[in-house]
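Lay summary. Proteins are chains of building blocks that fold into shapes, and those shapes determine what they do. In this project we predict the shape from the chain. Here is one chain we studied, written as its sequence of building blocks.
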Amino acid sequence: MKGFGFLLLVALFSMSQVTEGQDLSTAIPPFNVNSFIDTLLEKYSNDIPSSVKIGNIDSKYAYDCYLYIANGIRRNGDATFEVKDQTIYFNFGLSTGRITVQCRWYKRLLFVKLRGTVKAYTNGVGVYSRFSMNLSENPKAQLLEFKVTELQPIKTDVTGLWIANSIAEKYLNKKVNGARDKIVAELEQNTSKKLQAELDKLELPFSLDV
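And here is the predicted shape, written in a compact code that computers can read:
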């Protein structure tokens, strides 16, 4: 993370030039925070596979499920930063491309075995994120906020029911979109844990003497 190390060196140099009580944010030379965040997101997106097998979900009928993420994660709008109490705070918006979950389904109805696929997808998710990096002997990054600000309508596609496919899709569309609050809560909780785990791995290529 050479870019991150350079940023911290700039911040430390700036603090050595100011007197106690001065606003440190006014002493840091200008730098392109958007490019810095883009670099982080590009690396994170490259580590995310385009498809992930999630196996069976909490359903009696759905199995062999996959999660597909199109176009990774990208910055949405301008990123900002501030320095307070020897800590750098980064604020930025994120957005994704289409997110899809697709499963096979099976149900036995009397003497008939029904099989097909069910797919639920949204064309995008918007997120506000904030993390900090403390300037101490043991610098650590901490995720402070990960909040879903936008969830595009969720749509479903069903196969295997022939003329009843459209009826099943209307039913599932209503049911899934009715659970949007639960979906958002699970997305925020699960993703926050994974992002913090990634931030815990950040190491600086030098020791800080502050």
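What the prediction tells us: The first helix runs from residue 2 to 16.
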